[in-house]
Request: fold
Amino acid sequence: MAVENVSVAFKLYCLTVMTLVAATYTVSLRYTRTISSGDLYFSTTAVCITEVIKLILSLGMLTKETGSLTRLKNALVEHVFFSPKELLKLSVPSIVYAVQNNMAFLALSNLDAAVYQVTYQLKIPCTALCTVLMLNRSLSRLQWFSVFMLCGGVTLVQWKPAEATKVQIEQSPFVGFIAIAIAVICSGFAGVYFEKVLKSSDTSLWVRNIQMYLSGIVVTLIGVFMNDGEKILEKGFFFGYTPWVFFVVFLASVGGLYTSVVVKYTDNIMKALSFASGALLVCVSIYLYGLPKQDTLKLSHKDTDTESKQRLITV
Reply:
């Protein structure tokens, strides 16, 4: 297996972008599921559209990598259309990721974004365990200690906004935590499985992404019509969509591509650490959002009265 060397700056760039995208995605998704006015969109359609966009972006990146449409066609014929075994192999993480993404929507529909992010950090020890079991890697006691210390440290982040945000739907914390538990397991397994597939051959990252997203589109379409088929036929596929929803889909698509790059050139534990940093950003942003707003109008009137009194005293 050939090892591709990339600069430390590139790795840091990918980790930074992925962290920012993940934090923004969590807050935005929570907003669309609870705060947005109007009718609620179908989360299964958003997951499906995300897979389609990621496929299109991966095709674009593969076109750039191959350098010509002829070589692109040859790559697709060789690795996609005439490689059913490879497609079947990549269908495993695509199914698991589809479940994970739907669980994220369910969890953020029932839990605050900060609670979701803090609890979701259980993926760090889960990913480390999957790395040991599936990739036959060994972690030292210090590394295991660091993993659990990081997980615990993020969990102990204090979040106490001054004013609670109004929510327009009923929430079930129990359902939310069950959804997070499923998402944690899916994230650890699918991430490490995909890393193993990526690093066990010289096949292009974008070819692997295309293989996975093709399966993902099929799986998510099945989920769309199994869960919301009747409602979609009645109201439409894009029912309830707003600019914010499209923004969430865009973030999920870009975040998915950067995640695959991080897995390719680093590993899943680094990916989990990046998401932990994102959790801190989410908690800080929600805390700042919840701070009481200062009434500048009253303040200005008060200052004006004070100045007037001082002038009278001077006169």
In short: Residues 24 and 282 are 8 Å apart (CA to CA). Residues 205-235 form the longest helix (31 residues). Residues 8-314 form one domain. DSSP finds twelve helices and no strands in the chain.
